[in-house]
């Protein structure tokens, strides 16, 4: 009855300021995310990128998680969109790079010849300060640029291709590796492949997952491997979940496989144990000998 007595305008005001749990939750999450960054609650897990030919792991991908004090370990899709919308993506990416390069330095000191891949978002690639930040962090942690790979998605390149293009060129000039993530899900694939100085294509897992069951997916995987190789690029298949898929990828000449078949993303200490036991050994049946790198 109280509500019915209100004017429409009152209801709009009440809706915005008090009654929208969504917007409230959003503000609370935003505050909490800012605090989480300051308190170091954002942690990276690492997933092996396994060389198909010899089963060796020469690279890992850093994937951010939020170790929330009460809600547990939160996946990136629960907080990255918010970070992107609220200006927190820059500090988040710098925190991920700082943490990852610190780990990489330690791993290299342990004699592990690894490179690490870090994901960039749309706003990162429109941030002309990013190349300078990356350069500074590489120096701080005394890691060679070639040991860092930056994964960028196709959507990034469509947002503002001139500006993103100049940021990409500046990153390239530092000597870091560049990878196109989720390849095949965007629109302008061929035009930017013509111009962009990248080293790697990561074929999206939607194509990979179906390649043993669906001849059309198989044709896409096979021809993307050929396209990558024709351009002098490495082809990584993401989302490899079973040995049948791995064997199919091997037959097509795919260079690197990443997915739950080999390992889920792991905390740094668990990744070290994984590398010690599986790191130089091929996954799946049919290969008796592993090449130790
Ligand atoms: P992505 O870069 O394409 O990362 C691969 C995602 O697929 C990861 O999800 C990984 O856990 C998952 N995955 C790996 N293997 C398999 C598999 O065999 N099957 C299936 N179903 N999934 C698999 P995650 O960690 O939830 O990350 C999701 C996305 O969030 C990433 O997709 C990336 O776009 C973004 N992201 C993660 N960490 C960062 C970061 O530090 N910065 C930025 N900007 N984005 C990040
Ligand atoms: Mg990625
Ligand atoms: Mg991906
Ligand atoms: Mg993906």
UniProtKB/TrEMBL annotation:
- Record domain EAL: where: 26-279
This protein's source sits in the domain of life called: Bacteria
Q: Which organism is it from?
A: Pseudokineococcus lusitanus
**Protein known as:** Diguanylate cyclase (GGDEF)-like protein
